[in-house]
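Following up on my earlier thread - several people asked me to post the actual chain instead of describing it. Fair enough. Here it is, all 329 residues.
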Amino acid sequence: MTRFVLKRLAGAVLVLLALSVLVYALFYLAPGDPARLACGERCSPQQVAQVREQLGLNQSVFAQYGQFLQGVLVGRDYSTGTSVLHCDAPCLGLSYQTDQQVTQLVLERLPATASLALGAMVIWLVVGVGTGLLSALRRGGLTERTLTVLTLAGTGTPVFILGLLLLMAVCAYLQWLPFPTYVPLGEDPEQWAWNMLLPWITLGFFESAKYARLTRSSTLETLAEDHIRTFRAYGVGERAVVGRHALRGAVPPVIALSAVDLGSMFGGAVLTESLFGIPGLGKTLIDGVREIDLPVVVGVVMVIGTAVVLANVIADLLYAAADRRVVLT
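Reply from S.P.:
Thanks for posting it. Predicted structure:
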């Protein structure tokens, strides 16, 4: 297993290097002048040229990429004009717009994204797995048909539309909750939970439809296997058959997919973050692209890529732990 983890981590480093090269290439080819945006519309050409030199944009793209790798591995010094600012490794650079260290910016935004993803995962596991299991056990009945319609509605409804409907119904029409305003967990846990409730429901319901379908198909496949028929022929109760044996076959793919989806949520929940005003990584990435802020874009992409790769490794390990027939190579 150690060999498997080391191989996957080595592959992760190569994937992240390829990601960083791709982002730099796209940024280099994209239209727009980051120095003009950082300096402002009223700056003279001389002032823009000075800002371009200060940001290092007058160097070749290869030199800029080499300095980025240097910052990640050993840290880097930045000249602010009157002083030198040291950025410790892993240094992801300084924002063109705010001069803030990107590593610090990512650490500030990470808790919001993590709390959104973890809360949504609890909902999609409880609702999705429960719905899929109930649908499989009530196959052919009214319950299955009703749940099938609900899962299709969940799959086909864009998360942005679902969030808007919840805001209009719960906050505007029924007035059960105020419009969400993100509050950090450490500042006020109760307000944090209330303000994250609608984002959790929006993202969790959207993903739960996928898990309901997966759980239903896995459970039906397991219930049709020979050893399940043997247990029933020997008079084993239906509750024991389902609880001890059918679920054992249905759970591994759900666990593996949950780990992968949780990693993807660190960058894929941008619509939910934008809709509810959550200052997470997805919103930060969109803002960085709009402002042509390369250090922010590269830094957030690296963190999201790392989360996705690690989630895949964890998914493989969990799958192997849940199903002993799987061999890690």
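The chain has a mean pLDDT of 83. That should answer part of your original question.
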